[in-house]
Amino acid sequence: MLSIGALRAHLLATRLAGPVATSREESLRSYRLFAARDPRVMLGLDPEWGWGERDLLRLMADKCGVSDDPRHVSGPDVIDPERTLAGLDAFAARLGEVAARRGAVLLGTGHPHRLLGFYAALADALSAAGCPVLTPAQGSSVDITTRFGVRTYNLDYVRGVALVREPGARGAGGETGAHTHSPLPIRLALGAAAGGSGGVPDLVIGDHGWVCGAGQLGIEAVGLADTDDPALFVGEAEGRVAVAVPLDDAVRSDYYRPLTRYVLNRACLSQ
């Protein structure tokens, strides 16, 4: 396992933290849309508090380390690696807690091309620890609004991790999948789980709508989020998301492997 110093250096070298690929313009646009309650950035969350743009900027400065200066409007956004490390520790603690009681888990990602390997390794370790890894509603279809209109996707599971894919994409079990922010897949999965013998999960692990959609329904949820995903951090601030880890969620998939090892070690789940 990497030392804390080596992991911090890795975060900066791979731009998982520090100056990230997400631009300041992208982040500020998301904060404007969130303040206007635009469903494209709400990710299934229905905030209890009123969140203006300045409120969101202060929150994201606190949670991620972005600049809180509204006059800073361009260039790469910045994530404080210390906040990422603290988030990973809290994330690992939740995994360790659910593993200790052999709770049921559900994992899902809207970034399958980047994050599938990270979540799949967690699924393997949790399963080995005796946690049921749930796969409800596999093969079911869900209609999701995209910038191209309403599209139908199929819910699938790859190595225990939920994702959606377009009909006709590589067969079940393939590692292709669609990028999505929608909370509809987790709502579909949780509805099926509630009506099945396994019941709903004790913990949902993922990103985007998988986390916010679960948290909004009262299911404990933890996940990863970039600077242009304020919904997870608002959910954390309001108590509906247990942990939101700030990092770039779209770098090369192999860059997340040291984070996987670190989390599993901290959660006492290393195999």
State the helicity in percent bands: 40-55%
Number of DSSP helical runs: 10
Head-to-tail CA distance between termini? 12 Å
Oligomer: single chain
Order of helices and strands: HEHHHEHEHEEEHEHEHEH
What spatial order of strands do you see in the largest sheet?
4-5-6-3-7-8-9
Mean pLDDT: 95
Please mark out the parts with pLDDT under 50 across 5 or more consecutive residues, or reply none: none
Question: Biggest sheet, in brief?
Answer: 7 strands, mixed
User: What's the overall geometry?
Assistant: globular
* Number of DSSP strand runs: 9
Output the keywords.
271 residues; alpha/beta; seven-stranded mixed β-sheet; two-stranded antiparallel ribbon; 10 helices; 9 strands; globular
